[in-house]
């Protein structure tokens, strides 16, 4: 159930933005695996910011819709444990599908195909942002159950969710920029950097997607059991107060798969270097 307390609507909007900032930097299974994967794949600080922006733009839209729905008391649907695990399955399938697409492009091995791929998947973070936003965690419970009902009327009920999403956008763009800059600083040629980044991105998406699907299916069958798993921590911050399935999906799966992909990717690059397409030499008649 949602809490029944409310606060002044002006304060509610300030709190919503602050919670959004915090949400963007805490390890949330609905943000980190996606932002990390696409930011790494962009192999630049600017590309990482764009990935964070694209993800958060549709996340804002979803949160605004969810906040409006919550105001009109459709809360039990949004917080259903089984619905949450079905969402995990959907998110995982989209992530895995995106990874397969990237790996197919990567298997062609040409500089042109990798460059073409980098433009073709720019829409994927936006799709993920809207889908993943329907996940309901501790932050969403506060936004939907406390801040949204504090609005003066239904015309403004979308505002806490949208402003929460804006706060998330600020920190997700920062996080995305850091992830993208990591690859940008590696001393590789542009073709090798593109191949290396795409390999890490696709591997992380595939590993995270598979984990999401497995947890989603098991959780749909045994929602009470999966929800009960976890170890409490002394950190009184949502997403950090408990090491549970969500934390497992947000941190170990992402960084272990990315670390392994980096290790083997660098070994592969040492064995075989991709040469950029040769420049055409003008012929003089």
Describe what this molecule looks like in 3D.
The protein has one domain (about 10-270). It has 13 helices and 2 strands, in the order αααααααααααββαα. The radius of gyration is 21 Å and the shape is globular. Helix 5 runs antiparallel to helix 7 (about 125-130) and helix 10 (about 190-220) packs antiparallel against helix 13. The chain has about 280 residues and is mainly alpha-helical. The protein starts with 8 loop residues before the first helix and ends in a 14-residue tail after the last helix. The protein is about 70% helix and about 0% strand.
The chain-level structural class is mainly alpha
Mean pLDDT: 78
Write down the Rg. Answer: 21 Å
Q: What strand order characterises the main sheet?
A: 1-2
Overall 3D form: globular
* Helix count from the secondary structure assignment: 13
Largest sheet: 2 strands, antiparallel
Helix content: over 70%
Helix and strand run: HHHHHHHHHHHEEHH
What ranges have pLDDT less than 50 throughout 5 or more consecutive residues?
Answer: 1-5
> In the residues, how many domains can be counted?
1
Distance between the termini: 80 Å
Count of individual beta strands: 2
Report the portion of residues in β strands.
under 5%
């Amino acid at each position: 159930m949602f809490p029944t307390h409310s606060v002044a609507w002006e304060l509610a909007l300030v709190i919503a933005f602050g919670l959004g900032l915090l949400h963007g930097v805490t390890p949330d299974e609905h943000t980190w695996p996606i932002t990390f994967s696409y930011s790494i794949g962009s192999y630049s600080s600017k590309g990482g910011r764009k990935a964070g922006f694209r993800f958060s733009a549709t996340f804002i839209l979803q949160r605004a819709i969810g906040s409006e729905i919550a105001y009109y008391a459709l809360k039990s649907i949004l917080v259903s444990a089984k619905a949450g695990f079905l969402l995990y399955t959907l998110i995982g399938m989209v992530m895995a599908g995106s990874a397969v697409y990237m790996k197919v492009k990567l298997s062609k091995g040409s500089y042109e195909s990798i460059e073409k791929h980098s433009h073709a998947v720019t829409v994927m973070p936006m799709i993920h942002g809207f889908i993943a936003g329907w996940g309901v965690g501790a932050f969403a419970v506060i936004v939907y159950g406390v801040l949204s009902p504090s609005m003066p009327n239904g015309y403004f009920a979308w505002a806490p969710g949208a402003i929460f999403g804006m706060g998330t956008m600020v920190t997700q763009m920062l996080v995305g920029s850091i992830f993208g800059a990591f690859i940008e600083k590696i001393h590789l040629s542009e073709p090798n950097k593109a191949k290396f980044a795409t390999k890490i991105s696709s591997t992380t998406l595939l590993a995270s997607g598979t984990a999401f699907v497995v947890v989603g299916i098991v959780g749909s069958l045994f929602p009470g059991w999966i929800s009960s798993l976890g170890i409490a921590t002394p950190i009184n911050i949502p997403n950090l107060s408990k090491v549970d399935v969500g934390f497992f999906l947000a941190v170990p799966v992402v960084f272990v798969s990315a670390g392994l992909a980096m290790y083997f990717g660098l070994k592969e690059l040492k064995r075989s270097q991709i040469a950029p397409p040769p420049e055409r030499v003008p012929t003089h008649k």
